[in-house]
Batch of 4 targets.
Target 1
Amino acid sequence: MRKEKRFERVMQNEEWGQSLPAFFYRLSPLAQRCYLQSDSIDRFALDAHPRLNDLMGALGEAIVRGSIVSIRNAGQRLCDHICNELRVTGVPIQVRGVRPSNARGELHGIYYPNARPPFIVLWMRTAQRHDVVKPKTLARTLMHELAHHLDFHLFNLRDSFHTRGFFKRESYLMRIGWPQRRPPLTQCGLKGDQTSA
């Protein structure tokens, strides 16, 4: 009963503080509850640790080198570590070359929750100039897709919405993981290898 009353108050924006997105009201009641549950979670039970910093830093260095194989291996080690720490099923990642694009923009990454097993795809080069994506940008894309995986396998959500809570969780992974004092990574003069997906 208490949950029902709280849900009604949230629906009336008494506990929200900001208006809900328009599409929220087109969701089924079950999906609305999932959305609100996602929004209420702002971090993971994961602490900053030198090992996490090292793995994130190794991913950044692999991105600078521009090798699909190196990026995939470093990204997989990072995801495996986070999943192991949170005691959830790991997720395979794939790294491909040039980002797909259309009039709406470029696709940075995607998570396939219904595949068996689920997997993540990242694209490492920009659509127009085919430049290697900046290290922190690609690392954030990976954390974004991993956050979708964790919605399903850690929080047991029925869907993974882009709520404010979701973006806070993504930012939390970057905040505790990205090395703060590492010298800036540069791509000057680096074309990377020519391996393509």
Target 2
Amino acid sequence: MSLAPFPVRILRAVLAGVVLALYSLSAQAGFLGDVSVRLLAPGGIQNASNTPIDATQAVTHTNLGTGISQGDNGAIGGDSIGSFGYMLPGETIFFDNATNSIRLHVAGGYDGSVDGGISGDISTGYLNGAAGRARYEISGLDIGATIIGFQAYAFTGYGTSGSSGLLSPSDPTTYIQIAGNTLVFDLDTLLFTRPATGSSNAFAEFRIDLVSQGTGPTDPGTGGNGNQLPEPGTLALFAIAALGAGTARRGAMLDAPFTLDSFEPLLGSRFTLRLDDFTALPTNLMEARRGSTAHAPGGRQPFSLIFEAPAEPALSQGTYRLEHPAMDAMDIFLVPVARTATGLHYEAVFG
């Protein structure tokens, strides 16, 4: 069973939508205002039309729970018979206030083995171009606190584990980015698994939990919902947004004399993180990488470090005391970047 003919696909489009649900403004702020969703496909649609797509659909605060879906008569959702709009049946974008999350159901719109492509991959059908990637831009995200990152899952049913219709990529940071109150979700890089019932039934579901400043298991904060790092899962990753990462890169270490050469001999060795006067956390130095940016003559070459610590307690980004028998203790700014099968990874960046 193949996908719908692509003249139809031109009028309906791929990707799951964004639904924002209303929630009380108590301990969990939820989404506080209207949201705008923009669909961009600079290269048009595979095997159909190379006419660039640029469509925007607003979601009012009162309608965040229903969001955007095929047949909603919006610029992206279109009508139920596909005479206009871009979504395929079943595609939707919605928001969940209980987890401050964006939920997307994205359908496969192009089957290379059926539609004359050079491979048998199932993709969304959206094409990039000179103006950038095919993508959704979801803007106006306001959860009552500064958004610093996200937890992303690609499991069917919007859960944090289970089966997935996504074949690749496995790293959410390659197709999801956050800048300020805007989330970008790339469409042209997604490939879907091939269902036994036919490629027209290929889809993947995505859950993107927004993480705000001051939230987490050790510091609930006063805004947001206290999102924590995700449970282990092959498609789950905590990614710091550009704003949060930029903060880290402006001064990872408060004590300055150390360089990459100070840490390279200690790769694989045990460090200690002091959380307070009574609590210490063991951590291993996993990576020490030289930065690519230029540095002033006589200045320190930029570099970054990756540490692995136990999965619990999960630390929020912040400054911690780092100790090792072979060097002086230092204050270091750490940012959680990933959860693996063996623990949590934290990054420190030095300019």
Target 3
Amino acid sequence: MSTTRREHWVNESYLDHFCDHSGKQPVLWRYPMDRAIFENPESYTPETRIPHDVCVKRDFYEGNEQPTNTVENVLSDIEGKFETVVQQKILKKKELDRNDRQAIANFVATMQVRTMGFKKHMDSFYDQVISKLEAMEKAHGASSETSDEWKKSKKDKDMFIIGIIQSLSMNLHSVTSWLIFEAKLDDCHFITSDNPFCRYDFSLLNSFHGVPAFSKTTEITLPVTPRFAIVGNLLDLNGYIDATHNQVDEINERTLMSIHTEFYSSRKLKPYELKKLSNRHRQALALSIFAERAETILEKRLKKRQRQERIANRVVKIFRIHKILLLLLRLGIIRPESLGLRRKVDDSEEIED
């Protein structure tokens, strides 16, 4: 099997969907995350890059404790299955089955932790621990054995790689439902970034505890193509949604919320589009759909509960009748023949020829 040294933290097949195909070769319109761009967009001219040259670093997933390309090969398999779902289901607006939803869940789970932003977060944690260990070793005259172990662990990317593995082995997105928003209007489209995963909870805007893993009001956004974006939810909401201008803008703003250093567009953005990305009121996505469907959903759940109660009542009635019949038979008040039953012959009884 061939090996690769250039490893993408946002895969090329995903970025290919956001390319501008109007020129000689497909390119991404690249915008750095700079406040000046949004404040004075008329004076900024974006660069163009090919997907092969963005979100990539040499030996990004390689450590000293596993064979070459171990993580890269696992991620490649997940990327391939996700791309199949995109091509065969999402772009054709077909209903997703269980395997499709799991393929999306795996891709989203890894996209949450495989990026440069997450790795730098892990490195920052390492640096804090190593700094404290070195201070303690110096204060107590101890050897540097422990801090050296942590330095080696950082160099080998242990926690970064473990984070990717755990994202799959403990995939919290396996129980997630997926709404797919379609930007059908000509003057709007979805953008993406070097960290396209975003997890957001409207009910916890003022909380400093973070978002609980299974909060019912959590929403996950991930742009898939300039036309489609998936919104994960725990409200049992699935299917395709015709996105409004506000919903497209909301998903794009959430993409900017989780950005590491830059974002990408399939075309050159107009000045008013850049201003709109950073100057708007927030809104819910799945929650607003749930509110619209609430009456229908509640009616279906009520009918389902009523149907279950009717079945349960019938089972109880049958059980009670059965008990009464057994009692009457034992007391001899009724005979088996009267119920159309054959009387069991005792072994001690004589059987006439």
Target 4
Amino acid sequence: MGQRHGKTQEGNGELGEGRGRGRGRRRWDGPQGGFPNQEFFGPGFRGRRMRGGGPGRRARRGDVRAAALALLAERPMHGYEMIQELEERTGGVWRPSPGAMYPALQLLEDQGLVTVETADGKKRFQLTDAGRAEAAALPERKPWQEATEGIDPGWAQLKNAIGPIAMAVHQVATVGTPAQKTAAAELLAQIPRSLYALLAEPTTNQPPPAE
């Protein structure tokens, strides 16, 4: 039991992605030990992010090195800033881990394609002349566009919306009174009905019924 608890603490996602160098802001990736009745949330659910890229296919493994070059061609950035940019530009579908981003940046530095300035304990990366030439030679289609090809961005939005709800449910289940738990269950029971009601509404891309 102790060994399992230690493994959970190591991978609970409290710092960065929960692996790699662990740099960046803290983010919630689910409570330690998982949720009570975690099977309720479906396979692969770990809080703010779930595995996979949506129905029909998984997100492609992006080219982190090429993505870093393309981002740095726009402006100098910190490593974690690049991770955030990629997550934002892909609608949450692709968020490279620090364990993927920082080795790629180290490789670019070793190749003489970037220089590094350290201020307030943070490394800021900037392209060299050789790095700008390398970035200019990249395909016109950006790496983050390749990583999300064929994936509905709305799927990532739905996944990201589940995390705060699940965390609130866990808090109520942990410290709530019996009355609060009952009220929370009643609120949750309304969510499926509301979602199915959305599906029952006519979509805007369908022609109106003939009169």
